[in-house]
Amino acid sequence: QVHLVESGGGLVQPGGSLRLSCAASGIIFSISGIHWYRQAPGKEREWVAFIASGGATTYADSVKGRFSISRDNAKNTVYLQMNSLKPGDTAVYYCKHHTHWGQGTQVTVSS
Fold this sequence. Notes:
Elements: E1 3-7, E2 10-12, E3 18-25, E4 34-39, E5 46-51, E6 57-59, E7 67-72, E8 77-82, E9 91-97, E10 100-101, E11 105-109
Parallel strand pairs: 2-11
Antiparallel strand pairs: 1-3, 3-8, 4-5, 4-9, 5-6, 7-8, 9-10, 9-11
């Protein structure tokens, strides 16, 4: 059974940083690509970033240069390092593998 658990969200001031984690189980993690998505209140869920099994990464234009996705295969975990955060980054952040989603972690950027 696939299980994805996000953590690391919280309240941060504009310009601050957070690192989100996505711990995976029930998959062969080392050969699995993982996505990060986010959903702001009243908006549709949007794709944020992807990391392939080999480590190649892609980003949405809205976060390019500020967010960085990485993985630790020994810990079955994918990270999303978020820097220079803006109020517009406020959302629930989810990780996804194929059709499986985590429960999400709330990120709030506010002064």
